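2024-03-11 09:14:02 DEBUG pipeline.ingest accepted 1 chain
2024-03-11 09:14:02 DEBUG pipeline.ingest length=935
2024-03-11 09:14:03 DEBUG pipeline.predict start
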Amino acid sequence: MLESTTTQTAHVITHTHWDREWRYPIWQTREMLVGCLDMLLEIFDRDPSYRAFLMDGQAVPIEDYLQIRPENRTRIETAVRDGRLFIGPWYTLPDEHPVSGECLVRNLLKGIRVANSYGGTLTVGYTVFGWGQTAQLPQIYAGFGIDTILFGKTVNSERAPHSEFLWEAPDGTQALTTRLGIMFGRQNFFFTCVIPVCFGEDIVPNDWTFRWNLGGLPYRPADEEGQELDYFRVDSCDGFHAEKLRKALEDAWDTTEETLVPSHRFMGDGCDFIYPQPTVLKIIEEANRLDESRQFRHSSLPEFMEALKEGVNINDLKVVKGELRDGPVEKTTCNALATRSYIKHKNRRVQHRLIQRAEPLAALAYSQGAPYPRAYLDLAWDYLLKSQPHDSINGVTQDKTANDVMYRLDQAEELSKVVENAATVEFLKMIDFGETSAEDVFLVLFNPLPFPRSEIIKVIADTPAEQEITAITVEENGRRMPVQRLSIEEAMPMECDKNARPRAFASTRHTFFLETGEAPAGGFKTLRIGKCPRKEKKLDIWPLPEAIEGSLLKGPDVMENEFLRFSLNADGTFNLLNKITNREYPNQLSYEDSGDVGTYWVRQEPLNNQTFQSKTCPVRTWIEEHGPLSTTFVSEVTMTLPARALKDKSARDDANRDLLIRSYMTLRKGAKSVELRVQFNNNIEDHRLRALFPSGISLATHSCAEGHFCVDERPISPREKFLGEGRYWENMQTLPMQSFVDVSDGDHGLAVINDGLCEFEVMDNPQRTIAITLLRSVRNWICSGNTRGVEYPRQKGGQCQGPQDFRFSLYPHSGDWNEGGVFVESQRFNVPVRPIQCGRGEGGSLGLVESLLEIEPTKLVLSALKQEEDGPAIVVRVFNPTNQSIVGRLRTKVVFSKAELINLNEKLESKIEIEGGEIPLDVGPNKISTLRLTL
C-alpha cells in the first residue's frame, strides 16, 4: 500500500456478464435480463450519481430487452447517448477459436452498427469472455479503431509480469492491454468487497453456500420437472456490514498490485447475471471516508482506460506476442473445444456455405446487374452470430439450449442455400447458350473460389425419359469429358412453375463422377450432356456392363493415381506413399478411445482409466467402388468399450458395448490427398474418441494450424513452452484449429484437413502423431463457481449419442505448410465445385465459360466477397497468412470505376490505382487487407 500522502483513484466499474443462454434456456434468461435492465433504468432515473453501467461489451442484450420492452427504447437511447450505458462493440460474445476469423469481423461490424443505432458504441476492446484469445485480435480490433484491450483467459505472469503490456499480433499491430489483476479479473471488487459488505460473509474460501434460514423467499417447483431446477431468491439482501468494509477494501486493492499505473486501479463491480447494485454507491461513500489517500469513484470503462493510457510509460511495457491461452486448463477452460462437436461441426459447414459460397456468388451476380439479396444475407448472419456466443457454440448448456442453437444454425444454412441457389439462377439467365437445342441438357459448374481448379465431382443428373440415354456422356465444346458411371434409375421429380401447378418429369437419373477440366476462377463453365443414338427398343433401366479402363484400383488392397499410392492394412489402417517425394506415411487412421469424467470445460480421466486402440480390434474391409476417376476402400472396426464411467468417476464401467466405426478412404484422379469419411453411432458415454495420424516426421518441432487470418505455430514438446518453474499442463496440449493442422520438418509435411472439428494434438512421440478429437462425451454438469454446479442426469446431449459423420483429407506434401500449398488444398476440400443442371435459356450477355474474379497468387486467401455494409460497393477481403510480403493482383470481368483500401469497419484508408483493369495487391506478412470496389 502506498503512502497516505499519495492520492490514488479506484475506478469502480459496475457491469454484468450476460450470457444470452447458458445456465438457463434463452427465455428464462431473457426474463432475468428484462428485470436487470428495468432495474438499471429505474436507478438511472432516480440517482444521477450512479455514473455508468457496462453491458458486457455486447449489443444483442439491448435488442433482446427491447423485444419485450419496446416502450423503453427512448430511455435506452438516452442512457447510451449520455455515456451512462455502454454497449458493444461486439454483437454477441463468441468463443473465438471455434468460429472463423471472418465471423469475428462480422460480429464487430454488426455490434458497432447496432450499438450506434441506440446512441453509441464502446471503443474499448472488452474481451473478458471466451476461452483463449486469438493471436490476431489486436489487428482485428485495430481495424475498428480500437487500440486498448481488456481481456481474460489468459496470460500467465511469466509472459506478462505486470497487468499492463503491449499485445502484438502476428502482423506487428500492438495494443495496450490489461489482464486486470491478480485474482478475480473483472469481478475483483464485487467478490472481495461488495459481497462481504452486503452479505456479511466472504465468497472465498469456497464455502459460499445458502442457508435456508437466510430467508428472502427462496422457491423452486417441487414436482418431477422441478427437481433439476435452481432455487431462486425473490428478495435479495439489502444489508450493509460496515465492519467488513476496511478489510474488504484492502482485499480489493491487493488484487491490483501488479499494475504499472498504481494511481488508477480497476475495480470490477459485477459478475455473471448480476443486477445493478445501488448499494455500491454507499460502499464508495464510506470507502472515501475511511482513507483519504484513495479516491473511490463510480467510473466507466472508457474513463479508466483513458487514465491508463495517460498514466502508463510505454517503455515499461513488456511486449507479449501471439495467442493468449496459457494454463492451467481450469483457468482457461479450453477443453470445451471438443464438447458437443455436432454443434461446432454444423457451425463450420454453415460458415463455409454462407461466407465462401452464398455471399461470393451473390456479389458476383450483383456485379453483373443482378439484385443483391441483402435481407436474406443479413438474416442468415443474424442466426449465425446468435449461435456463436461462447456458451452456445460450445454447448456447455442444458439440452434445450443446444437444440435452440442447432435450430438457428439450420436457419442460417437454409438461408445460405436460398441465396446461393438464387445467385446461380441469375447467372443461368445471363448465359448465352448460342446455337443449341431446347432438348439439350446442360451442366453449369460453379467455382466460387478465386483461383482455377480441376476436380473430380459427383453428379446426379436427370435426362428426359424419351431420350433413352443409358450411357451418359458429358461434352465441352464437342469434346467428351471423362466420366465414371455409378448408377442409373428411373426418376419422377417435379417441375415447379410459378404460374402453374407442379408437373411430373419422367426422367432417367444418372449418378456418375465427372472430371471437370479447368473450372474458371470465381466463375463457371457450361457442359452439355451428350445424346446416345435412339434405340429401337427401350432398354430396361439397369447399369450397362462396361470395361473399367485405367482404374485407380491396382490390387485387392491398393489404389494409385499420378501422385499417391495407397495400400490398406489388415488392421484397418493404411499406408500412403507420396510418389513425388518418395516418402511413405504408414499406419494412418486408427482410433484411440479413453475415459472422460470431466466437465464441459475441463477434461479429466478416471482415476483408474482405460485407453483402447482400434488396431487391436476386429476389422472388416472391402472395396466400395472403383474406376478411372475415383476409388473407395472401406474399413469397419469394432471396438469393445466400457459403456460409461462409474458414478463416482473412479473408473470406467465393466459393462461393455461394441462401437462400430466405418472409415471410407477415397482416392481420386489427379488428387494429391486422400479423402476420408468416418461414420459411427456413438453409444458410449464418458469418453473421448480421437482419430490418429502418425506423421513419422520425428524432426518436427512445431505444429502449424490454421488460425484467424494466420497460421498458429506451436511447439510440440511441452518442454519448449515457457510456463515457468517447469510447469506442464497436460490438458493444455490439445489445441484449437480451423480447417487444418500440419506437421513438417521443412522438407516433408503431412496435413490433416477437416470440415468442422476444432481440437487436435500433435503427440510428443517419435512418430509426431496427429490426434484429431472426434468428440468428448461428458455429463451435463453446469458450473456456478470453481467447484460447484448442477448436474442434469436426465439430459444426455453432452454425451453426443447417436450418428456421427466426419470428413477429412490427408495431404502429404514437400516443404512446410506454405510451400506445400496447404491453404489451397484446404479450400478445395471445403468449398466444392457445384454442378447445376439446366435447360437452354433465352440468352444473355455472358459466355459459356466465364471467370468473374481471380486473385493471384493463391497464397493470398480470400476471406470475404460481399456488398459493403453501408453502401452499394463490393467489398473484397484477403489476408496473407505467410511471414513474407506478397504482391499480387485482383482481376475481374467487370470494370470498376474506383478501388479503395478500407479498414475492417469499412472506413476509407487510401485510394488504389486500377492498372489496366487489374487491381494491384500488396499485403504484408500476416496482414488483413480489405478493398472497396465501386461499380
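2024-03-11 09:14:41 DEBUG pipeline.report The mean pLDDT is 93.
2024-03-11 09:14:41 DEBUG pipeline.predict end
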